[in-house]
Amino acid sequence: MNSAKLSTAYFPSVLWTAVAVQSTDVRLEAHEHYQKQSYRNRCHILGPNGLQKLTFPVQKGAKEIDRVGVSYQEPWVHDHLKALETAYRNAPFFEVLFPDIQALLTTKYPTLWSLNRASISLYEQWLEQPLVHGETPEFVPYAAPGAPGELVKTRGDIDGRALHPKAEHEAVFPEYPQVFSDKHNFHGNLSALDLFFNLGRTAWDYLAALRF
């Protein structure tokens, strides 16, 4: 696969990460406006009660994606760490990975962009592979055609900037062991944190083999 454009994301999804792993040149969209209820400030995990959405609040004012501030007036960091611990403390790689997440989230980042970039950098550290190679130089409208929230492929290149939590995807997510598989059906496109906690280093093999 050649190049890919992706929007910034908070602990990106399995699909987002698979696109990045399989692309030789990945550019983050640096000139869009912030979009509410998107992956830009949320991620999904699988907890004891099923699908759980972790969202962090942003400050009002700036619309430019690289200027949107993170709000720390609410105890969302504590809530996210507690949710992750509850969801994954019995996962095979929890003790290895959780301290890295704890260190990241207890650092105060001024902007959504810097917080998300730190979460992507953590993925890069775990995978021992760069996922992002730069930023878009200017905003170009999303590629078309394509269903809302889907990947758009053009001659081997991918535009994934419109990926959205509510979108259905053509990708087929092979099942892997999840902590609460005895209580809930398999969930395939969670935050890649789910993949890392459950598979550890073999998460790379899963991401490299995913078809979309």
What key phrases describe this protein's structure?
13% strand; 7 strands; 31% helix; alpha/beta; 212 residues; five-stranded mixed sheet; two-stranded antiparallel sheet
Tell me briefly what this model is.
With 212 residues, this protein is an alpha/beta fold. It contains 6 helices and 7 strands, in the order E-H-E-E-E-H-H-H-E-E-E-H-H.
Q: Could you walk me through the main structural features you see in this protein, from its secondary elements to its overall organization?
A:
It is a single chain. This protein is of the alpha/beta class and about 210 residues long. The chain has one domain (about 5-210). About 30% of the residues lie in helices and about 15% in strands. It is built from six helices and seven strands, in the order βαβββαααβββαα. Strands 5-2-1-7-6 form a five-stranded mixed beta sheet, with helices on one face. A two-stranded antiparallel sheet has the order 3-4. Strand 6 (about 150-155) and strand 7 form a beta hairpin. Helix 1 (about 15-20) packs across helix 6 (about 205-210), helix 2 (about 75-90) runs antiparallel to helix 3 and helix 3 runs antiparallel to helix 4 (about 110-125). The radius of gyration is 16 Å and the shape is globular. The N and C termini lie close together (about 10 Å). About 35% of the residues are buried. The mean pLDDT is about 95.
